[in-house]
Design brief:
This protein has 8 helices and 17 strands. The protein is α/β, with parallel strands linked by helices and 354 residues long. The two termini are 19 Å apart. The structure holds flavin-adenine dinucleotide.
Length: 354
């Protein structure tokens, strides 16, 4: 039986980038994917490369910051269409207007690469006429990029194949260490062997890690979004936050390439069903001066939240040939190139130790 240098479980943005990183260093890689490339959150997200990051002290913040710097070159290499834009947070009431300096200061503490500005309402409305009139002032943060995540995943899958990475369809059911190798059993594919395994199975990663004895609790929360055409929006527009900005990844009106616009996501509590398209539209339509046309698509993705709300990258204690990526929630898309570098270097050090 062929023994692969590395098996990567899951062809999401993290798994594909990890496979590409490994292949670029001469490692023979097989990616095993249960559905299709991008079958999980990687093609069902808002497509925003975030500038405002999670609070300091979290790996999520550090990797998203690094990832954001790596993207421009990556998008150019892959030829992925994208929009360079800004985030506008309009103040519509006197209270919000008075709070804009506080909001700008809190965002400054969280933002990477970009300083928020406070602008006059009429200047913002001139630039973004699709906004509901009556803006008094707005906090504006530059340096954002948006993209269609399905396009990104499909380009990454093509690039991986071009670089000699194998992509096979099968759901990994068990992983075990035997005789100095990792043995994987997957439906459709049977038994596979590798010298190192990287578990980037997104919502499925915790289950595989648990099976191997790594007890990490991960909760899933549904995030719902609607996709529209003819909304004429060119900036990301978000509601003025009512409870501080510690978690800044609330939904927004988000321009995508090709004149498309995403509304959302709105997240349900773990275990609850996703919000309906009508609920999503009604939450954001108040930011716009027109009623959004019926959505072209309703998109639901699942956020995978680890207990400390941080990414976990761990070498398995029992089977040191296995590396797990757990709790890869937002800004996981932004962080993906940096996550992949970390995971690839962990895998390379396993291969070197053998
Ligand atoms: C609604 C929503 C909006 C978001 N918006 C943003 C955003 O704007 N910006 C941002 O930075 N981040 C965003 N995120 C987060 C981002 O989408 C994720 O962090 C990122 O896509 C995770 O990628 P991944 O490769 O780790 O996982 P996934 O994309 O979930 O990939 C895992 C893959 O593994 C496969 N798989 C699972 N189990 C198995 C198994 N047993 N065997 C084989 N294959 C398996 C799945 O089919 C899947 O294809 C958002 C997330 C959600 C849910």
């Amino acid at each position: 039986m062929r023994v692969w240098d590395a098996i990567v479980v899951g062809a999401g943005v993290v798994g594909l980038l990890t496979a590409i990183e490994l292949a670029s260093r001469g490692v023979e890689v097989l990616v095993v994917e249960a559905e299709r490339p991008g079958g999980g959150a990687s093609s069902r997200n808002a497509g925003v490369l975030h500038v405002v990051q999670p609070p300091p002290g979290r790996l999520r913040r550090r990797l998203a910051y690094e990832g954001l710097k790596l993207y421009p070159r990556l998008l150019e290499d892959l030829g992925v269409e994208h929009v360079e834009t800004e985030l506008i947070i309009p103040a519509y009431t006197r209270v919000q207007e008075a709070l804009t300096p506080i909001l700008a200061a809190s965002i400054k503490a969280l933002a990477a690469h970009s300083k928020p500005k406070i602008e006059r309402g009429r200047d913002v409305l001139r630039r973004e006429p699709a906004l509901r009139p009556g803006v008094r002032r707005a906090v504006v943060v530059g340096g954002y990029i948006t993209l269609d995540p399905e396009e990104l995943v499909s380009r990454l899958a093509d690039k991986a194949v071009e670089m000699g990475v194998g992509i096979a369809r099968g759901r990994v059911e068990t992983i075990a260490c035997r005789n100095g190798q990792v043995e994987v059993i997957a439906d459709r594919l049977g038994t596979l062997e590798a010298r190192v395994l990287v578990n980037t199975a997104g919502a499925g990663a915790a289950e595989l890690a648990r099976q191997m004895g790594l007890g990490v609790e991960v909760k899933l929360a549904a995030g719902a979004m609607t996709l529209h055409r003819r909304l004429g929006v060119s900036s990301i527009v978000s509601w003025f936050p009512s409870r501080g900005v510690r978690e800044t990844k609330g939904g927004a009106v988000i321009p995508w390439p090709g004149g498309r616009v995403i509304l959302g996501p709105t997240f349900s509590k773990p275990g609850q069903p996703p919000h309906s398209p009508e609920e999503v539209v009604s939450r954001y339509s108040g930011l716009l001066n027109v009623e959004p046309p019926s959505p072209e698509r309703y998109i639901v993705g699942y956020r995978t939240m680890a207990s400390k709300r941080d990414f976990i990258l761990a070498r398995d204690e029992r089977c040191g040939l296995t590396i797990h990526a757990l709790g890869i929630e937002s800004p996981g898309l932004t962080a993906a190139p940096a996550l992949a570098r970390r995971l690839a270097s962990m895998a390379l050090s396993v291969l070197k130790d053998l």
